[in-house]
Amino acid sequence: MAGSDLLARYPHDKALHAGACPEERGTHMRVAIASDHAGFDQKGPIVKHLREEGYDVVDLGPRSGERCDYPDFGDKVGRYVASGKADRGVVICGTGLGISMTADKVPGIRATPVQTVQFAQLAREHNNANVIGLSGRFVSLDTNEQIVDTFLTTEFAGGRHAARVEKIMREDDPSFTGVPEEFGL
Ligand code: RB5
Q1: Cis amide linkage into residue 180, ω under 30° from 0
Q2: pTM reported for the whole predicted model
Q3: Which residue's CA is minimally distant from atom 8 of ligand 1?
Q4: Do 67 and 59 form a contact (C-beta atoms < 8 A)?
Q5: Which protein residue has the closest C-alpha to ligand 1 atom 9?
Q6: What digits encode the pLDDT tens for the residues 109-155?
Q7: Domain-by-domain residue ranges, the chain?
Q8: In the prediction, which pLDDT does 25 show?
Q9: 136 lines ligand 1 (CB under 6 A)
Q10: Residue range 3-172, CATH number
């Protein structure tokens, strides 16, 4: 899909518009966050941490640590970001895997699990991730806060990465029939 087509398909995807960052809009970055029961204990402290840093945070649940299904909350954050109601999303489950998989299936979303600060940086610089998935069971709160800070403050590098990100997004296009079989052989 050409760049202009991508922008037409995802008018709310600020990450696709080079330079259209919230600071330039004169607003705080809006962050949507949700978890399942396994990510619940870290969600509250991360929300508090981000609000103290000045982010406009929307907590999409759950309200208690009772057992629940991570796809419900990955979906909520994915759709919230894809609709333009938030600039970025953070999802937390036990591993960060299932909730990221779900969010990534929402058209317009580039979600990936992240376990280190360096991966958070690269997920932004190279992949222009607009949602990250954190592990509430295997990564400490301190590290996850550093991961989220890096995710929210690192810009997409563009350049050679831009065409690759466009190729990620063509997977959302129902008219895209796949890379030709002979490609790369
Ligand atoms: C819940 O037990 C666990 O499966 C979930 O939090 C997550 O790790 C799934 O990917």
Answers
A1: no
A2: 0.89
A3: 94
A4: no
A5: 98
A6: 999 999 999 999 999 999 999 999 999 999 999 999 999 999 999 99
A7: 3-172
A8: 54
A9: no
A10: 3.40.1400.10
Residue 117 neighbours by CB under 8 Å, 6+ apart? 143, 146, 147, 150
Compute, in angstroms, the gap from residue 41 CA to the centroid of ligand 1. Answer: 14
Catalytic residue list: 93, 126
HEC secondary structure over the chain: CCHHHHHHHCCCCHHHCCCCCHHHHCCCCEEEEEECCCCHHHHHHHHHHHHHCCCEEEECCCCCCCCCCHHHHHHHHHHHHHCCCCCEEEEEECCCHHHHHHHHCCCCCCEEECCCHHHHHHHHHCCCCCEEEEECCCCCHHHHHHHHHHHHHCCCCCCHHHHHHHHHHHHHCCCCCCCCCCCCC
Contacting residues for 27 by C-beta, under 8 A, at least 6 apart: 56
Contact between 115 and 139 (Cβ < 8 Å) = yes
C-beta of 139 in contact with ligand 1 (< 6 A) = no
How many CB atoms sit inside 10 A of residue 163's CB? 10
Q: Using the mean position of ligand 1's atoms as its centre, give its distance from the Cα of residue 93 in Å.
A: 6
